[in-house]
Amino acid sequence: MWLFSARSLTSFPRKRFCRHSRASGNPVTCAIKTLGSRFRGDDECALRSAVARLGVGLVLSGALVACGFHLRGEAHYTFDTLFLNSPAAQPLTTDLKRSLEGIGTAQLVPSPETAQVILDITSVENNKQILSLSGGGKVREFLLTKRVLFRVRDSAGNDWLPTSEVLVRRSYTYNDTEALAREAQEQRLWREMQDDAVAQIVRRLQQAKKPA
Fold first, then answer.
1. Which of 16, 21, 22, 165 could pair covalently with 30 via S-S, beta carbons 3.0-4.6 A apart?
2. Where does 37-183 show beta strands of DSSP type E?
């Protein structure tokens, strides 16, 4: 039989645990905290300052993205000034003007006389129709359609971009037991469809060219 004394047992090497790993259960966290704890004086201040600057930068970047900020000049046009000819009461007008001012290279002007080209929004149609029915004859799906017609011309009536169509569709399932939730879903889809239509118009304006 082998006999061991208490002293010989304590002579075996013991596994060393990081106090941070016991708290978090994550060895990576342990290593980072251990490394950070070795900084002293100016080194520790520099580390904290760098982390703080990084955090502020990430917060500001997230805020800009969340509010829909865009750098000007993402859409490059062959014209320098533009007049938007669209009814002021039309919701599309406000969104389109904001988008053109935000990402287009052309400057929006308040009158057609001072504009190199005129963007005519000739038609905006919203349509909702039944897409399918259930076996019991109840509505199961709806189809939403937004159709926008627009044209780019100069003050003399020459087409820089002939009448073009933007067509956006969305469908959603319907349940009359969830009428309020489905109505909110429909309003959200209309909002997304308008954003999509505006984005398409802004992109297509890049195809406008001065007539030969």
1. 21
2. 81-85, 107-108, 117-133, 139-153, 159-173
Name the residue type at position 127.
Answer: N
Chain-centre distance for alpha carbon 90? 23
- The amino acid present at 152, given as its one-letter code, is V
Q: Dihedral sign for Cα 180, 183, 188, 191, please.
A: negative
Q: Convert 124-163 to b/e letters by CB count within 10 Å (16 or more is b).
A: beeeeeeeeeeeeeeeeebebebebebbbbbeeeeebbee
**Residue 94 structure tokens:** 């406000």
pTM, to two decimals: 0.65
Q: Which of 3-7, 36-40, 48-52, 144-148 has the highest mean pLDDT?
A: 144-148
For 141-165, the pLDDT digits (tens) are: 999 999 999 999 999 999 999 999 9
